[in-house]
């Protein structure tokens, strides 16, 4: 099948973005596994962004199936548990790929672990070429190394492909001073610095990922994925959506 020429436009704030989607986000309201309706909704949102001409990469987590540091891992060796978690991210990536291709978006899954029947092996130049050809690229299996989270993988892959920003999709509408589910007085920040995130130990991304972004001045926007249209709003630079994490506050 011949791939359509990539449409170009200036109706976006970022040329190349990396979206970090947690495995838990793909669960929807289920207690475990993948909600195909959620995957379809994410695919439809990504299609709208893709049609603007934005180059889109995605890093998926695996917490809806298995987490190396969770109770489900029990007393397993941490490395073994983390590798199982990486396999869970591959499962999620293939589900998201299927959802994207069902809405006619050309997609490639690149895995840090060699599973040629399911995904291409991650090669940086190959990933960039796919993006340049107008394909959405899904990065699976984290960094391919135990003891590193998919947050760290998102920061690493974003830097490798020279993304303009990391879009961290969550269940809340930004970064708060405390857990808004438990503290109704928690303050939502419109913007915050990496240093403040580290000093206040805010649960944005893990410390390794935040430090990597800070060292390379790669901004992060944390936003609510459950709100329809938010992915597009972030990409088009609509103000007031989520929390921006960067080296210095704009205001």
Protein architecture, described:
The chain is an alpha/beta fold and 251 residues long. It has one domain: Carbamate kinase (3-Layer(aba) Sandwich), CATH 3.40.1160. The protein is 33% helix and 18% strand. It has helices at residues 36-51, 78-102, 124-132, 150-160, 194-199, 207-215, 230-235, and strands spanning 16-21, 55-60, 107-111, 120-121, 136-140, 165-170, 175-176, 188-189, 191-193, 220-224, 243-246. Strand 1 (16-21), helix 1 and strand 2 (55-60) form a beta-alpha-beta unit.
Order of helices and strands: EHEHEEHEHEEEEHHEHE
Tally of DSSP helical segments: 7
Which architecture name does CATH use?
A: 3-Layer(aba) Sandwich
* CATH fourth-tier homologous superfamily: Acetylglutamate kinase-like
Which percent range describes the beta-strand content?
Answer: 15-25%
Measured as a percent range, the helix fraction is 25-40%
Tally of DSSP β-strands: 11
* CATH T-level fold name: Carbamate kinase
Quaternary assembly? single chain
Gap between N and C termini, in Å?
A: 48 Å
Provide the number of structural domains.
Answer: 1
Rounded to the nearest angstrom, the radius of gyration is 17 Å
Widest sheet, order of strands: 4-3-5-2-1-6-10-11-9
Rounded average pLDDT: 91
Determine and state the CATH class: Alpha Beta
Major sheet description: 9 strands, mixed
Shape: globular
